[in-house]
From TrEMBL, chains A, B, C, D:
Assigned EC number: 5.1.3.4
Catalytic reaction annotation: L-ribulose 5-phosphate = D-xylulose 5-phosphate
Cofactor(s) needed for function: Zn(2+)
Family in the record: Belongs to the aldolase class II family. AraD/FucA subfamily.
UniProt protein name: L-ribulose-5-phosphate 4-epimerase
SMART domains, A to Z: Aldolase_II (SM01007)
Stretches assigned to the Class II aldolase/adducin N-terminal domain: 7-197
One GO cellular component term noted in the UniProt record for this chain: cytosol
Pathway(s) of this molecule: Carbohydrate degradation; L-arabinose degradation via L-ribulose; D-xylulose 5-phosphate from L-arabinose (bacterial route): step 3/3
């Protein structure tokens, strides 16, 4: 069942240690088959070196396990909420990558200070509010997803143009049209968070990019007029800005 | 004698360079057989690349060598004190990992700022007081252990729920139900110390987790209601909170 | 066509991941044949692990593709401007290396604080002004090159003695007599930017080298009286200071 | 001539890239045969991957080349001064390792903040004064050595108990009874400088170790009563404190 997607999700998971985004088992990637309404996710607490494609767990959009011998990631309810709220995404990744976690613990957005950010994120990557006591006790992982969704709604952000968020006190979630692209975005977020940290220490002041530079770099790689790369495949990956 | 435990302790020691926790020979792991009242520890000053399982030294709970051709780690008296004071631990590790040492030199706790910490440490990892002149001259390594034990007692901390400590001006000790799990905890401490450093620089203010988030993340992985991982083996590893 | 130069440019590009200067595809190296007035550059958005010498694209000094099946780097117009303005350089490299990007986002020069810098850069590596809205919209990549050239002119800098620049909000460009040497200079810039960051945090004050130390270290490696290395080949690589 | 020493010096040089202490060719190790009054040093500007034992250059204590096809390190006059002034040392290493360079550029000692330092350095590693214009122009590399020697004299430091120094604006030199031990000391200095930087940022205050802890850790590894390691060979390596 969904063997090809399992393979893709497996390979995207295996990118996490290769890209230096996980310690031990602290990360998970999922990918969705929108036609079938099912997603495939890493099993909980399995070491990357022992992971196999057939270990992937199949889950429906109510968050129920449909196939798989192992427990799915304990963050499965977060993935479920995000797939339901963000209908155009095809993959999600959660890590505890240390630069992003440092900003999450500080409850700070990862700002768009440089074109490395602007190539991927059309503005600051937002830090969703820390969960309340009630949210944590009622449905921790589900409410983690709702906090992200609420943040995008309240701040009028486009989830395709800013394909990542921090959850305050916790860490980063990233997504994209495919599991592979979600992992790419998670890596960009980690690199940019490290650069932003150092820029903030150097300046202790606002270093935000102007909108016209954000426009230039983002649309150089995304949308119908993209001219980076060999086939401008990016134009199919990402929708243009909504507002 | 204790060949299986020697192999376990050897393998746990070999994890230290692999996880980036040691430079040269600056670390040691031990593991205990509680029934026999004997523990096994790395020999002093031996390079990791030359270390063999049969080099491990067997020591009793008075700190006396029972078997072994080599000198045990010069930190053996610290391990002895900890095994006697903390009856439920099965393994201990000491390293000079640089983020933890940076906090130890600053005489600062490693705070619980994020859920990476909360997954393993049910609150701040305490920095034990620096040893006095008298303590250093009388029994340096033994008093290093006593400083840790005293800190847990005075601050009413549960050594199973917070399985690590810093010794001010010196560095980290971590422990756990097994040597392997002690090394795991030492790595978490190092990762969290690095993240905390950056969060502190970003905020210069208190970023402590609320108790309800600590509860959620800690008990998601530990105790009878844990639901992380495949067999909730964590519930057997760690006792629940005492107070 | 230009097979030997393609091989050189290919090899210089492959140095970027080896030296830790790129993430994903975020870098490009070019090299020029001055006699023919043609330069060779990495294709746009191709992974380093799939790159082959024959993928290199040949471009003339108007920035037009002369040979090659693939699109050239989207930064090709920047390279074109620099080759036209700086007639003695033979190779150019652009990366998003994180320490240099951190300074670029802060719009700060990378100062000459130590002899590691002075061995390669005869003074601070300048941060060119951020591009204006008009410059970005009219000809983004070309104006990126013009911003660098204008900075060198306005500040009376010698592009052979300071073979690199930052573009504010963006990142580093480096150059040299050969593609290989341009990559060397890009690596020195990254190392020095990291050291400078830490020195600035330690001192929060001006730590600029005096001119006489700059003279000594720079001319120990460059010019007719160089005495570093085996054949003082450096004397052929770099012209002496102009003013 | 001196084939065994050449092999030792070669191997000690090859430790530098392995320990992450050099970028490109920015480091050199030498070792001395005190009976013959000759030392062996790395040739100038040769890549580590191409270095061979027979490339090592033999130099006498006037700094004259006695044997070797290649130019010796351009820092040879510094080594010469140090061998003459510090009669008990057997090896010297110079690197541009980045944490030590960051402190050197800040003209700051690397303080003894933790026992990782105290195990090797019996107090702060001093930053020698920056060279004056006259010193640089007259005999740059020789005066680099004299600046170190003068610092030890003026501050009443024991070069065997503190086997390293920074040269302000430049970088670290370390030494020891053998070339291998000099490299070890250079690595300790780099690790400690990184830790000290972070401790300083955390505390912004004095975190100096008390003398009694320095005594304990230093003499645990050095001198007649050392008890670290297997054969207390350290007692032969290092003289005890002079004053």
């Amino acid at each position: 069942m969904l063997e090809k997607l399992k393979q893709q999700v497996y390979e995207a998971n295996m990118q996490l240690p290769k890209l230096g985004l996980v310690t031990f088992t602290w990360g998970n990637v999922s990918g969705i088959d929108r036609d079938k309404g099912l997603f495939v996710i890493k099993p909980s607490g399995v070491d990357y070196e022992n992971l196999k494609p057939e270990d992937m767990v199949v889950v429906n959009l109510k968050g129920e396990v449909v196939e798989g011998k192992m427990n799915p990631s304990s963050d499965t309810p977060t993935h479920t909420v995000l797939y339901n709220a963000f209908p155009k995404i095809g993959g999600i990744v959660h890590t505890h990558s240390p630069w992003a976690v440092s900003f999450a613990a500080a409850k700070m957005d990862v700002p768009a200070f440089n074109t490395t950010a602007a190539d991927t994120f059309f503005g600051d990557v937002p830090a969703a509010d820390a969960l309340t006591k009630e949210e944590i006790e009622a449905d921790y992982e589900g409410n983690t997803g709702h906090a992200i969704v609420r943040t995008f709604k309240e701040r009028h952000l486009d989830y395709e143009a800013i394909p990542a968020a921090l959850v305050s006190q916790h860490g980063p979630f990233a997504w994209g049209p495919t599991p592979d692209k979600a992992v790419y975005n998670a890596k960009v977020l980690e690199v940019v968070a490290g650069e932003d940290y150092h820029t903030l220490q150097l300046t202790r002041s606002n270093s935000e990019l102007p909108q016209y530079l954000l426009d230039k770099h983002y649309y150089r790689k995304h949308g119908n007029n993209a001219y980076y790369g060999q086939n401008n495949a990016h134009s199919k990956d990402h929708a243009v800005r909504e507002n």
